[in-house]
Amino acid sequence: MGDHYLPRYYLRGFTLEPGGQIWAYDKARLRKFRTAVKNVAMETGFYSREVEQLLANSVENPANQVLDKIRRFASLTSGDKDLLAPYIAAMMTRVPRHRLRMNETAPPVASRLYEEIAHELDLVALADPGLARLAAKRKLEAKEILDRYCDHPPKEVWLRNIPPASMPNLVASISSMKWCYLTYEQPAFLTCDNPVFFFTWLGVSRPQSEISFPLSSRVALWGRRGEGIREEFLRAKRQAVYEVNRRTAANTTRFAFHCKDEDWILPFLGKGDWALHHMLLTGIPGSLHSSLACPAVLVAKLRLRSGERAARAAEGPRRAWAEPFGFALGERRRERLRRCASIAGHHTRSSDD
Q: Measured in Å, how far apart are the chain's first and last C-alpha atoms?
């Protein structure tokens, strides 16, 4: 059996009964099938054995009891939130989409790293002309190494970014949000192979940032910031369920999952050009009888279609790498560059040997 990039315990929340089967919807091949949870959201050799064990023992197992409480609509403690925040962060970094994102941004990272290396070597040659030939040789070697890095980004770089401990700011930002739990009386929420949604141009650290994360077919976590927000269970209106499912569909890399066979899901996944909204709370908060609606008219700047997202990503690949979750932190960027330089140095020493 391969490595599950979505935990089986998580996926069981999208079955109709314990130990039941799940429906998988493949938007690439436009097919659907019913199977056991153990057969989906997995890939042979996806992680290293060390990462697989760390996720199971340090992230998934502690959080499973919290998932159970939410699925039973039981109140959470601050300690429960501390267990679930790393789990949510890992669900953002362990999935195929995050690995693809890191691979796509390898070329701009390599280009910027080469510019820094070349600049340093030029300064060496300027200070000591006798080292000019050696500096030119090292620049050529660095270019060759970084070109290979672009063609085949080291899997180890991605693996090091999966554990929540490697992303403390991400975990802290998720934990600092106010969490509400959107409930619906019927199985209605989808999940997918990239289940945690956030507005990519906002990240998760800004005042207007928010996340949504389906936890079962009947409940989804909604995190955001603001004054007077209470952490509670809210009864979602159909518009809110639809908005959460649109976010899930927009986030889907290939597979979505649901507890039932529904004809609308594959066309829904294939729509693509989604207008995604911030959700607003309406009614009187404070109990399950609160309601959540997604108004048809929202502030224009809080709307972004998927085509516009792609255009922004093309304009700013460096930002996408340095700030994948919205952290404008120079130290994180420098740490990534140091990791790349470490890999480059390893290859350089190997070639010298």
A: 39
Q: Provide the token pair at 268.
A: 């829904």
**% of the chain at pLDDT higher than 70:** 79
120 Cβ partners below 8 Å, 6+ apart? none
- Average pLDDT over all residues of the chain: 81
Band of residue 292 on the pLDDT scale cut at 50, 70, 90: low
Handedness of CA 154, 159, 164, 170 (dihedral sign): positive
Tokens of 3: 């490595």
Q: What is the pLDDT of residue 313?
A: 43
Pairwise CA distance, residues 41 & 29, whole Å: 16
Distances (CA, A) of 87 to 61, 92, 273, 324, 325: 10, 9, 29, 18, 16
Alpha-carbon distance 171 to 186, whole Å?
31
For residue 32, which of 6, 40, 274 has the smallest C-alpha distance?
40
CB-based burial of residue 228 (10 Å sphere; 0-12 exposed, 13-18 middle, 19+ buried)? exposed
The candidate with the shortest Cα–Cα distance to 268, out of 183, 190, 198, 182, is 190
Instruction: Spell out the residues 6+ positions from residue 162 whose beta carbon is closer than 8 angstroms to its own.
Output: 47, 51, 55, 90, 93, 94
- Spatial distance between the Cα atoms of 66 and 198, rounded to a whole number of angstroms: 22
- Both structure tokens of 57: 């023992």
pTM score, whole prediction: 0.75
Query: What is the per-residue pLDDT across 97-132, written as a single tens digit (0 to 9) for each?
Result: 888 777 777 778 778 888 999 899 999 889 998 998
User: What are the tokens at 187?
Assistant: 């199985």
CB 6 within 8 A of CB 195: yes
Tokens of 208: 């207007």
**Residue 178: pLDDT above 50?**
yes
Dist. CA 1–CA 23, nearest whole Å: 19
